[in-house]
Amino acid sequence: MTDYKLSVIIPTYNRVNFIAETLECILNQTLKPYEIIVVDQNSQDNTVEFLKQNYAGKIILIENKGNRAPGAGRNLGIKAATGDFIQFFDSDDVMTKNKFLSQVTKLADSHSAGIYSPYVMSIKDEQKGWLQNSVILQSEDSKLGKHTLKQMLKGFFVPLPAYIFKKELIDDIGFWREDIFAYEDYDYLFRMFINGLKPEFTNECCTFYRVHQNQITGGNFTNNQRDQDKIKCLKKLISDFSDILSSREIAIAKTQIHRVESGVNSTNISSLMYNITNISLRIENKINRLITKTDWQMIHKPNCDKQLFEKYKQML
């Protein structure tokens, strides 16, 4: 087999109860990673001690005592990475054991700089194991590309753990934002599509996105904080790429900001433009949900087949 050098970057904070399962699923991949870089974000439980005791020699452990934002941890991982491919992963999720092999081998032979696969929100039950919490998303190729920017501004997003990227793309994009705790991944992926990313796709593997109460941008992170980070993210994207985004895309972004700010109009969008854009987005959302018969849009490619979930579950 070709010697593919895949670097896995995992920021973690207080994940002693989950990180072993994540690391074991990575270590048991059919294509072994070149290096696993775990960046501890000053955990207050015994995550660091647990990692040193159980995974010494198996991972590269970086202890970050500074900025605890997820982007800061990933940036330290990027600086340490020496592989040709990059997998950003979370310390509480898992993947089918063939993810690296399926994605890297296809990506290596492609002109594209990235590849993505299906993902499913799941709950881990102590007795029953992994349980499906929602439909499988991105079960088919959505043909993502620069046109995806408009869909992202409407709310579309594929979590970064579902992807693998070539290191050259990461070098082009640069570092993650470190001033926000939420939407930093949205910002990073948006910049990738601005840069021209047209990812490959394979449905041979799947990422299980763990749903639980103690997620970094969950439990102790309020909706207001999340909303404020969303506003910061969208405003900076409008400012940085106003010469690239279409007038329609900018109107959608400003409408999303206006919605969050509950009537505080700081984006200079006219009342008429806001009302037109807002109504059109709501109508489009309703039509999409009627078509998919789910809470998801058509671009999410939702799949309600429980047998498909069981198939992926057997591949963990």
Kindly report how far apart the N and C termini lie: 22 Å
Helix content: 25-40%
Query: For this structure, what is the CATH class?
Result: Alpha Beta
CATH superfamily: Spore Coat Polysaccharide Biosynthesis Protein SpsA, Chain A
Q: Oligomer, anyone?
A: single chain
> What is the makeup of the main sheet?
7 strands, mixed
Mean pLDDT: 93
Beta-strand percentage range: 15-25%
pLDDT < 50 runs, ≥5 residues? none
* Strand/helix succession: EHEHEHEEHEEEHEHHEEHHHH
Give an overview of the whole structure.
This protein has 316 residues and is an alpha/beta fold. The chain has a single domain (6-220, 303-314), classed as Spore Coat Polysaccharide Biosynthesis Protein SpsA, Chain A. It is built from eleven helices and eleven strands. It has helices spanning 19-27, 47-55, 70-80, 99-108, 148-153, 167-173, 184-194, 223-240, 247-260, 271-292, 306-314; strands at 6-12, 35-40, 60-63, 85-88, 94-95, 114-116, 119-125, 129-137, 163-166, 200-201, 207-210. Helix 2 (47-55) links the parallel strand 2 (35-40) and strand 3. It is globular.
SSE diagram, text form:
Elements: E1 6-12, H1 19-27, E2 35-40, H2 47-55, E3 60-63, H3 70-80, E4 85-88, E5 94-95, H4 99-108, E6 114-116, E7 119-125, E8 129-137, H5 148-153, E9 163-166, H6 167-173, H7 184-194, E10 200-201, E11 207-210, H8 223-240, H9 247-260, H10 271-292, H11 306-314
Parallel strand pairs: 1-2, 1-4, 2-3, 6-10, 7-11
Antiparallel strand pairs: 4-9, 5-11, 6-9, 7-8
Considering the chains and any ligands shown, give keywords for the structure.
316 residues, alpha/beta, Spore Coat Polysaccharide Biosynthesis Protein SpsA, Chain A, seven-stranded mixed sheet, four-stranded mixed sheet, 11 strands, 40% helix, globular
